[in-house]
Amino acid sequence: DRLNAVVRKVDGATSIISTVAGTGEQGFSGDGGPGKQAMLREPNDCFLDGKGGLLVADIQDQRIRRLDLASGIISTVAGNGEKERSGDGKPALEASFMGSRAVCMDSKGNIYVAEREGNGVRKIDANGIMSTVAGNGERGYEGDGGPALTATWGSPKALRCDAQDNVVVVDTENHAIRLIHADTGIVTTIAGGRLGGEGDGGPATEAAMDRPHGCGIDKDGNIFVADSNNHRVRVVGV
Fold first, then answer.
1. CB within 8 A of 146, min separation 6: which ones?
2. Cα separation, 207 vs 194, whole angstroms
3. Residue 193: CB atoms within 10 Å
4. Following DSSP, what letter does each residue of 171-202 receive, concatenated?
5. Of 91, 86, 40, which is closest to residue 63 (Cα–Cα)?
6. Which residues are registered as beta bridge partners of 34?
7. Which of 10, 104, 200, 237 has a CA-to-CA distance to 225 between 20 and 30 Å?
8. What's residue 10's pLDDT?
9. 59 phi and psi, to 5 degrees?
10. Angle formed at CA 117 by CA 111 and CA 123, multiple of 5 degrees
């Protein structure tokens, strides 16, 4: 609940809503204590890590936070609060982000972060070390077919890993869905790439989108996309 500076939960059995993190006041505080007494600054995305924790992309605090769902304790797992791209090769807590907009995790325990102002994707490996896996820091739309690291991106705002640990990235300002191949690090566009709203029923790479902002992947590998300015949810079929 970004502008209310909280993370909320809807109980699957009762449909009752509750707050699990955040006080409602924008800020940064509370690590090591109860999540409900901590402050967040525009939490935008969350992801269950499969280890009893909820990862939260705390955008304006330039951090990734983790809420332990059993104890309710919150901590920071990446980011030192500075708004800059730095710290590759160092522990993630000593590194910094430029707009930690979205977060996900692959099957190996690697955490990926969509870096909006940094125009790329960062990775925290299972040992807690930070690296950059996509983007040279410049905004643009070049590099398909080559290494994701040297490609240019347009303020990516969402990402998820598929069953093969490929990273699906919503490249918002390029109106594209791009895929970073896990085995090679090569990036390709798999849907969109131009501004518009047409293309349903045809090849996804010939379709147009208008500033997509979110994505999800089902068990069959279909990719669902929130095509924001077209006011639609679209699906890229396997």
1. 186, 187
2. 8
3. 20
4. EGGGTEEEEE-TTT-BEEEEEE-SBSS--TTS
5. 40
6. 73
7. 10
8. 97
9. -55, -60
10. 15
| pLDDT value for 189 | 98
The letter for the amino acid at 150 is: T
Predicted TM-score of the model (pTM): 0.96
Nearest alpha-carbon partner for 58 in 88, 83, 89: 83
Both tokens of 238, joined, read 């396997």
Q: What is the pLDDT of residue 238?
A: 72
What is the set of domains in the chain, with CATH numbers? Answer: 1-78 (2.40.10), 101-238 (2.120.10.30)
Question: Tens digit of pLDDT for each residue in 127-161?
Answer: 999 999 999 999 999 999 999 999 999 999 999 99
Tokens 């960062």, residue?
122
Q: Name the residue with tokens 């304790």.
A: 73
Which stretches of the chain are assigned E, i.e. beta strand? Answer: 7-10, 17-21, 43-48, 53-58, 63-68, 74-78, 100-105, 111-115, 120-124, 130-134, 158-161, 167-171, 176-180, 187-192, 214-217, 223-227, 232-236
pLDDT tens column, 172-213: 999 999 999 999 999 999 999 999 999 999 999 999 999 999
What mean pLDDT is predicted for residues 36-52? 97
